[in-house]
């Protein structure tokens, strides 16, 4: 998709793709916090929109998990999973993991391994951004908003040391801002 298109439009288009593949069954959405919350909320709004104008309703439930991996703009290499304690409710359900950015793939592979232990009927991953990086092992999510170069992105709930989440757009952080807001 073209990144110059308004976020609402590309999120709506991704929601349509999700419904084509997962619609008709209970969908359990898992939001990877903190970064993915805005994309998650927008995506679910568009997934639920057809339910409002139809006599058919697709059951949806949500849960949240936090994966801590960054300090400044560097991955620590250590993935800490916080939340998602009741993943046993996944058994037999369609499961949609919503993530902000996939870069090294290590984080998503760890989370997918955890989720698959609970025998969901289907597991799909939607990511706002997919980084083209030499550190990637080649994992590609089922639904992708944009492929981007290997740069640190802020805005649209993506942060740099807890700053810039409030921007309504996503952009690359400048070296000046990195220095100013370094932890």
Structural notes for this entry:
This protein has 183 residues and is of the alpha/beta class. A six-stranded mixed β-sheet has the order 3-2-1-4-5-6, sandwiched between helices. Helix 1 packs across helix 2. It is globular, with a radius of gyration of 16 Å. 29% of the residues are buried. The N terminus is likely disordered.
Topology as a string of helices (H) and strands (E): HEHEEEHEEEEH
* Gyration radius, rounded: 16 Å
Mean pLDDT rating: 81
Indicate the overall shape.
globular
Task: Output the strand order for the largest sheet.
Answer: 3-2-1-4-5-6
The class by helix and strand makeup works out as: alpha/beta
Proportion of beta-strand residues: 25-35%
Count of distinct strands: 8
**Overall helicity:** 25-40%
Specify the biggest β-sheet. 6 strands, mixed
Low-confidence stretches: 1-5
Please tally the helical runs, counting DSSP H or I stretches of 4 or more residues: 4
Distance between the termini: 34 Å
SSE blueprint:
Layout lengths: L6 H16 L4 E7 L3 H16 L7 E12 L2 E10 L10 E9 L3 H11 L5 E11 L10 E7 L3 E2 L16 E2 L2 H6 L3
Which key phrases capture this entry?
single chain, about 180 residues, alpha/beta, six-stranded mixed β-sheet, two-stranded antiparallel sheet, disordered N terminus
């Amino acid at each position: 998709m073209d990144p110059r298109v308004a976020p609402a439009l590309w999120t709506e288009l991704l929601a349509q793709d999700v419904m084509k593949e997962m619609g008709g069954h209970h969908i359990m959405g898992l939001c990877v916090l903190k970064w993915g919350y805005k994309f998650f909320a927008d995506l679910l709004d568009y997934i639920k929109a057809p339910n409002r104008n139809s006599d058919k309703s697709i059951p949806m439930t949500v849960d949240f998990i936090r994966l801590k991996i960054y300090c400044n703009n560097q991955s620590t290499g250590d993935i800490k999973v916080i939340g998602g304690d009741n993943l046993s409710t996944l058994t037999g359900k369609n499961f949609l993991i919503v993530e902000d950015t996939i870069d090294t793939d290590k984080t998503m592979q760890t989370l997918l391994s955890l989720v698959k232990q609970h025998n969901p009927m289907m597991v799909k991953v939607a990511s706002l951004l997919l980084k083209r990086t030499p550190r990637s092992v080649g994992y590609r999510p089922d639904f992708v908003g944009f492929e981007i170069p290997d740069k640190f992105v802020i805005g649209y709930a993506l942060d740099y040391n807890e700053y810039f989440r409030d921007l309504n757009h996503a952009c690359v952080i400048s070296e000046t801002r990195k220095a100013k807001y370094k932890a």
